[in-house]
Write a structure and sequence with these properties.
The strands form four sheets. The chain has a seven-stranded mixed beta sheet with strand order 3-2-1-4-7-6-10, sandwiched between helices. Helices cover about 35% and strands about 20% of the residues. It has about 325 residues and is an alpha/beta fold.
Length: about 325
């Protein structure tokens, strides 16, 4: 039981994904094994196939939350009005609550997007949160200024729902419940009246919840395709993230990966992608050994991105695997 790990040192994280993102979710777990110990990861399984496959894999330091056990009448009422992705967004504000309800020993929990990958200890970010003595922590997109000029912040919002920490306090619960109510009311993949999905609701938090919410100051530690080139320029070609958000990364086929789409990440990101691809190869090997089919997400029309073509049928786990643009 996860409560047996609650010794004041174990950090609790929660994520959600369906079977399409199983290999990427396994990479997140692998990065926590390397950089996040001691930890416990809670996974909200968005379909029964993901639940079944994760149960078979029996990952260490993991508790599965079946979707059917998490949904209540309010969520089921809006589910038919949302796409699969929109429903995932609708559920995100509830994930910390799901953990708190299942383990009374958990003092704080951090929501993670499934396509995050840690290159250093998340405690670097969580220690800053502890020093703030606040109740909720959020991270900024910290867009490269050129993407700011293209209107990315206007669409996606100042803050990114990627790494969000909630303490077990009435103050954090107030913020979480406000967010839950807003997402139940409206959570769609379009811009409308200043809203976009679950994310732009966070734009008002610095004013609405100034006493409760801490904005992470270490922006250079939370990298993604939309800012890695900018922080590389500031660091004279060197980046040292705590995590990288592999937004848009997809297994397209048995020979092809989409690394990112719509951004220019620069040379400094190559090391990050190379490391991630090595780990992905190891996770694919684990899935194959378990007899679990590797899910692929074929490219949608209009996707423009950098492609990695694999020399072999699947990644062999070596850093020297070539890719082409």
């Amino acid at each position: 039981m996860p409560s047996s790990e609650a010794d004041g040192k174990v950090e609790h994280f929660v994520t959600l994904f369906d079977n399409n993102f199983l290999p990427i979710g396994l990479c997140l777990h692998a990065s926590l094994i390397e950089h996040g110990q001691p930890f416990h990861l809670w996974i909200l399984c968005m379909d029964e196939l993901a639940e079944r496959n994760l149960h078979q894999l029996s990952l260490p330091h993991v508790t599965l939350i079946p979707l059917r056990e998490a949904e209540d009448a309010r969520l089921l009422a809006v589910k038919p009005t949302r796409s699969r992705g929109e429903y995932c967004w609708t559920l995100t504000p509830f994930t910390p609550q799901f953990v708190f309800e299942r383990d009374a020993a958990v003092e704080r929990v951090t929501y993670l997007d499934a396509d995050l990958y840690f290159f250093a200890s998340p405690r670097i970010l969580l220690d800053e949160f502890s020093r703030s003595e606040k109740h909720v922590q959020i991270t900024e997109h910290a867009y490269d200024p050129r993407y700011e000029r293209f209107g990315r912040a206007k669409r996606g919002g100042r803050f990114c729902v990627q790494f969000m920490t909630f303490r077990r306090t009435p103050q954090a619960e107030k913020v979480m419940h406000w967010w839950q109510e807003r997402c139940l009311e409206w959570c769609y993949a379009r811009v409308e009246d200043g809203k976009f999905g679950d994310q732009k609701y966070l734009d008002v938090w610095p004013e609405l919840f100034a006493a409760e919410v801490h904005i992470l100051a270490q922006k250079d530690k939370t990298l993604a395709p939309w800012n890695v080139a900018y922080y590389s320029r500031l660091g004279q070609g060197v980046v040292a993230p705590v995590f990288y958000h592999f937004h848009g990364f997809r297994i397209l086929s048995r020979q092809e990966l989409l690394l990112y789409s719509g951004y220019r990440v620069g040379a400094a990101a190559d090391r990050l992608y190379d490391s991630f691809i090595v780990t992905l190869g190891k996770m694919i090997s684990i899935l194959r050994q378990a007899g679990i089919e590797i899910p692929c997400l074929p490219r949608r029309s209009g996707w423009i991105g950098r492609l990695a073509t694999l020399k072999h049928q699947w990644i062999d786990g070596e850093k020297s695997i070539p890719f082409r643009i």
